[in-house]
Amino acid sequence: MYQSKITGVGHYLPEEVLTNNQLSEIMDTTDEWITERTGIKERRIYKENEDRVSTMGARAAYKALEMAGINKNEVDMIVFATLSPDYYFPGSGVLMQREMGINGIPAIDIRQQCSGFVYGISVADQYIKTGMCKKVLVVGSEIHTNAFEYTNRDRHVSVIFGDGAGCALLERAEEGEESAVLSTHIHSDGTHAEELAAKHPGSVSKIRCSNEMLEAGALLPNMNGQLVFKNAVQRFPEVIKEALEYNNLKPSDIDLLIPHQANLRISQFVQKLMRLGDDKIFNNIQKYGNTTAGSIPIALSEAVQEGKVKKGDLLCLAAFGSGFTWASTLVRW
Ligand code: ACO
């Protein structure tokens, strides 16, 4: 069995900023309400006719390739995680592939929402371990801001989300090399599938989209915030501990925890429970909101850019999201 390692990371964020104060001018909310409950101050909004989930992914991928010093033609697989694909089908992986001009290699789409990126790392890691692939791009990219109305009926959800993309390049590690993806751990449980979901347009309804559905708000993402919070604060620590125990490590061995940026209050709860100092956890949800599959690779890329990750560091990436799904990976940088 081979080992994989992360050799490049990159991210792309649309320039336009949407602040809490701007939101309070268009809907019934306040900066205070949003900040107190989520920690979010602002988020980015995609530019119509310029940004697509696939093209944003490609921009992040080019940066990851540049950091690794790898030509795009050396990539032998794309794993693309998103819950906001360009089209209902085909998936955004092939669209990013076309955008980058690297046709012919497999492009797999991942549908595990906020856990999508860590699931993607797990898939890429398995392909590299078995020798099937040597260089795999794992992308998380999302456009959320056009899914909402920004009115009172979606204010408990819409204020949380933002747009952005991130990418990691996984490569086969040399034998005995310290840098490695140490392990990945993925889980799901469909019991509460509809409690955090966008059910329409879906094949569950005879008419996938109608004026009545639009009027009733049936196309808006739905979230039972308190149930999500309760499950997230249970699953995050559980899956982090699972990864540590698997590698005979303890919480104090973690140099940097990069949790999915769901909600700053969730991250703080996990940090406290794991007894991690402020310098051992990376949060940027304050600036970008929750970018679901994009959040971990954006945060990882930003942490690297800010010099917060050194060679030999132990990184823990952990996620929880719709499904419910949850996942973790330990990475020796
Ligand atoms: N601005 C002002 N008031 C609001 C807003 C808003 N944006 N949204 C809801 N309210 C109001 C509600 O109408 C309600 O008013 P009422 O008491 O008069 O009925 C009141 O605020 C409280 O509403 P709740 O929904 O009970 O608010 P809660 O305290 O549970 O906070 C929140 C909501 C922030 C979503 C919280 O449940 C939470 O943090 N949940 C975790 C979910 C999460 O973080 N999801 C992230 C995405 S999923 C993921 O990534 C895993």
Strand content: 15-25%
Radius of gyration: 19 Å
* Heterogens: acetyl coenzyme *A
Structural class: alpha/beta
Distance between the termini: 20 Å
Q: Which strand order do you get reading across the main beta sheet?
A: 1-7-6-4-5
Question: Could you estimate the helical fraction of the residues in percent?
Answer: 25-40%
Poorly predicted segments? none
* Total discrete domains: 2
Average predicted local confidence, pLDDT: 97
CATH topology of the largest domain: Peroxisomal Thiolase, Chain A, domain 1
What do you see in this structure?
The chain is an alpha/beta fold and 333 residues long. The protein folds into 2 domains: 3-173, 3-Layer(aba) Sandwich (Peroxisomal Thiolase, Chain A, domain 1), CATH 3.40.47; 180-332, 3-Layer(aba) Sandwich (Peroxisomal Thiolase, Chain A, domain 1), CATH 3.40.47.10. It is built from 11 helices and 13 strands. The chain has helices spanning 20-26, 31-38, 53-68, 92-100, 116-129, 155-158, 211-216, 225-246, 264-273, 285-288, 295-305; strands at residues 4-12, 16-19, 42-45, 77-81, 107-110, 135-142, 164-172, 180-188, 196-197, 222-223, 256-259, 314-321, 325-332. The strands form 4 sheets. The chain has a 5-stranded mixed β-sheet with strand order 1-7-6-4-5, sandwiched between helices. The protein has a 4-stranded mixed β-sheet with strand order 8-13-12-11, with helices on both faces. β12 (314-321) and β13 (325-332) form a beta hairpin. The longest helix is centred in the last third of the chain and has 22 residues, at 225-246. The radius of gyration is 19 Å and the shape is globular. The protein starts with a strand and ends with a strand. The chain binds acetyl coenzyme *A.
